[in-house]
Design goal:
By secondary structure, this protein is an alpha+beta fold. About 20% of the residues lie in helices and about 40% in strands. It has one helix spanning about 55-70, and strands spanning about 10, 15-20, 30-35, 45-55. The protein has a four-stranded antiparallel β-sheet with strand order 1-2-3-4, covered by helices on one side.
């Protein structure tokens, strides 16, 4: 399996930065930061997810998938 790095990933007008944290029990939790804009107009949203994973790589892949889902979701209720 090819490892997924912790670097930022451009997704349309957003930049998704996946992250993982090891819990006290040895499992891993996923989180992402979704950034948009530049300079004084920049916005950053941080999402932390409840599922835990046995490997860091599984948590990272979950974070990237959630980042894709959040950035590609339709912004209007009509969709």
């Amino acid at each position: 399996m090819t490892p997924v790095s912790d670097i930022s990933i451009p997704m349309g007008k957003y930049v998704v930065s996946p992250s993982t944290q090891q819990t006290d029990s040895g499992d891993f939790r996923a989180s992402i930061t979704i950034s948009s804009g530049r300079g004084a107009s920049s916005h950053h949203r941080i999402y932390r997810f409840n599922p835990s994973f046995k490997t860091r790589e599984d948590a990272r892949l979950y974070a990237i998938t959630q980042g894709w889902a959040h950035t590609s979701a339709c912004a209007t209720p009509m969709c």
